[in-house]
């Protein structure tokens, strides 16, 4: 097993387990992943990227595969329905990747229509053969992220996990919903536990973890070797430190947005939200400038997410439209959060 992948852990005893920022298309760009790490995420993964586009050297797809020296481990995630293109893309990524993650969870029709993403859960032999050939062709660890099944017939995540372990996948992540469910209903942690108990490789639990209480409940229920947070981390990268502080894995005073305020405990909840989000926003912009430059589209999406739920947030779109440049937009959001 790779040194970058911790071995499977037993039933949860309350101690720290790695927290993963879920790969999210349109959300987890490079500066956001670096920010999430500064906010307590232990592992980050790129947005999923089409393996066929990578083999054709598509510039926009390769753009999503950018990393930075401080992103360790660097884990690009790829999807595709063509096993040859998946293996070729993995080979192209292997020289820069620490780990390669394969997507068997995406429910979007444009992905499932090419028998990729979660549709492959309905073609288990094809899925397993695909993983096996990638493991054979690259010398970096290969991991996979999947759903419980397609939702047609019995769920097969446990069976697929056992088969993937046999062909050399080194870590598995399960989102506790089926393809048919997409994002509806509650994540089924009991089915994740079944898979955790059936294999010797680490399994990461994903679905509906949004704070310390749900993180603790999910670890107790599943015994998973790590937790992955998706929607709970959109606009709220501090969810990782919230979990760590809430579970006693780190001290509140160690958080940079807390440490910079002499009287953090004298601030009310809204003031604390503004202060934490301002710190995060300024870091997002600084990390963008230090890596890929400020990307207008990415920044605008994050601005909406970072300010969601705060008093006055309705003005944010107008505020952005009033600015002439990306930098002016970044500054306007920073000023809004500085209230
Ligand atoms: C906007 C968005 C984009 C997503 N993109 C990806 C992706 O690129 N790759 C992937 O494996 N999962 C993707 N997912 C699924 C998440 O990684 C995660 O499995 C799912 O949101 C369930 O976790 P949660 O309940 O913590 O949100 C995406 C989810 C959302 C909401």
Key terms:
339 residues; alpha/beta; TIM Barrel; 2 domains; nine-stranded parallel beta sheet; 15 helices; 42% helix; binds flavin mononucleotide
Summarize the structure in words.
With 339 residues, the chain is an alpha/beta fold. The protein folds into two domains: 19-250, Aldolase class I (TIM Barrel, Alpha-Beta Barrel); 254-337, no CATH class. It has 15 helices and nine strands. The protein has helices at 30-38, 51-55, 59-63, 83-93, 109-112, 124-137, 157-166, 189-198, 212-222, 239-246, 256-259, 269-290, 296-307, 316-321, 326-337; strands at residues 19-21, 43-44, 48-50, 77-79, 100-104, 142-147, 171-175, 203-206, 226-229. A nine-stranded parallel sheet has the order 2-1-9-8-7-6-5-4-3. Helix 4 (83-93) links the parallel strand 4 (77-79) and strand 5 (100-104). Helix 12 (269-290) packs antiparallel against helix 15 and helix 13 packs parallel to helix 15.
Biggest β-sheet description: 9 strands, parallel
Ranges with pLDDT <50 over ≥5 residues?
A: none
Number of helices: 15
Oligomer: single chain
Write down the overall geometry: globular
CATH architectural designation of the largest domain: Alpha-Beta Barrel
Overall mean pLDDT stands at: 96
SSE class: alpha/beta
Strand content: 5-15%
Radius of gyration: 20 Å
Look at the structure and give the CATH class of the largest domain: Alpha Beta
Number of strands: 9
Instruction: Give the SSE order as H and E letters.
Output: EHEEHHEHEHHEHEHEHEHHHHHH
| CATH superfamily membership of the largest domain | Aldolase class I
Strand order of the largest sheet: 2-1-9-8-7-6-5-4-3
Percentage of residues assigned to helices: 40-55%
The domain count comes to 2
């Amino acid at each position: 097993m790779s040194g970058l992948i911790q071995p499977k852990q037993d039933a949860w005893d309350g101690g720290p387990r790695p927290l993963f920022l879920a790969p999210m298309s349109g959300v987890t760009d490079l500066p956001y992943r670096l920010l999430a790490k500064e906010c307590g995420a232990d592992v980050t993964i790129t947005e999923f990227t089409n393996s066929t586009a990578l083999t054709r050297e598509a510039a926009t797809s390769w753009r999503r595969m950018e990393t930075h020296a401080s992103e360790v481990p660097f884990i690009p995630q790829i999807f595709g329905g063509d096993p040859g293109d998946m293996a070729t893309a993995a080979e192209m990524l292997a020289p820069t990747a620490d780990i390669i993650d394969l997507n068997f969870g995406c429910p979007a029709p444009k992905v499932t229509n090419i028998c990729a993403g979660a549709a492959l859960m309905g073609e288990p032999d094809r899925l397993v053969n695909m993983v096996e050939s990638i493991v054979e062709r690259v010398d970096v660890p290969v991991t996979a992220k999947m759903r419980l099944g397609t939702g047609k017939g019995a769920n097969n995540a446990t069976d697929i996990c056992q088969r993937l372990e046999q062909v050399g996948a080194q870590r598995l992540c399960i989102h506790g919903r089926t393809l048919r469910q997409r994002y509806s209903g509650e994540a089924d942690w009991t089915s994740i536990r079944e898979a955790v108990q059936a294999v010797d490789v680490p399994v990461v639990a994903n679905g509906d973890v949004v704070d310390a209480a749900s993180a603790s409940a999910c670890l107790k229920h599943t015994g998973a070797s790590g937790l992955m947070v998706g929607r709970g981390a959109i606009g709220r990268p501090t969810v990782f430190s919230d979990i760590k502080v809430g579970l006693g894995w780190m001290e509140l005073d160690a958080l940079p947005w807390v440490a910079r305020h002499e009287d953090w405990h004298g601030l009310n909840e809204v003031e604390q939200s503004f202060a934490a989000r301002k710190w995060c926003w300024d870091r997002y912009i600084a990390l963008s400038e230090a890596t890929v430059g400020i990307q207008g589209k990415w920044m605008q999406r994050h601005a909406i997410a970072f300010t969601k739920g705060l008093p006055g947030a309705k003005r944010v779109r107008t505020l952005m439209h009033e600015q002439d440049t990306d930098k002016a937009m970044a500054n306007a959001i920073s000023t809004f959060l500085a209230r």
